[in-house]
Amino acid sequence: MQECGSCTLCCKTCKIEEVNSSNGVYCSFCEPNVGCNIYDHRPEECKTFKCCYLQMNEVHPDLRPDKCGVVFEKINDTLILGSLDGKLKEMSDLIHRQIRSFGNEGISVMIQQFNPYKFICFYIKGAKKEDIIKALKDKKNDSTELY
Fold it and tell me: Which residues constitute the domain of residue 81?
């Protein structure tokens, strides 16, 4: 299993209502590249969150979210969600290889980027639109455009 190290990208890509954080903006309790200022008392949602990087036994170190610009998280057994850091201009070949690797395991990958007005999904492979919409609604992202 991997460790977060100085990665705090999930504090930017996850919306946590308990601390009033928004998608695409660092939580007010996060010190980017350092960690959480309320770590011992952080919300349950934060305690239980584990990105795919943390769950893999063997993974290229450049796939750590703060290095590659994407937080991959397992939504269910057939869908992985990748949340892009707003600073990421384009996905690297390494990220594309990771997406293909998930695909080879029969897992669909959806990439999201945030803007202030809507939730945009721009990479979907093999997943049914209905399953994606249900997964997003389960994550409280209900303004969805699929491309």
Answer: 10-146
Which stretches of 18-107 are assigned E, i.e. beta strand? 30-31, 35-36, 70-76, 79-84
Listed residue (111, 106, 108, 114) closest to 95, CA to CA: 111
Residue 120's pLDDT is 63
Give the predicted TM-score (pTM) of the model: 0.82
77 pLDDT band, cuts 50/70/90, is confident
Q: Which residue has the higher pLDDT, 66 or 108?
A: 66
Helix, strand or coil for residue 40?
helix
CA angle (28 as vertex; 25, 32 as ends), nearest 5? 70
In a domain, 19, yes or no: yes
How many structural domains is the chain composed of? 1
d(CA 92, CA 68): 8
Q: Does 5 reside within a domain?
A: no
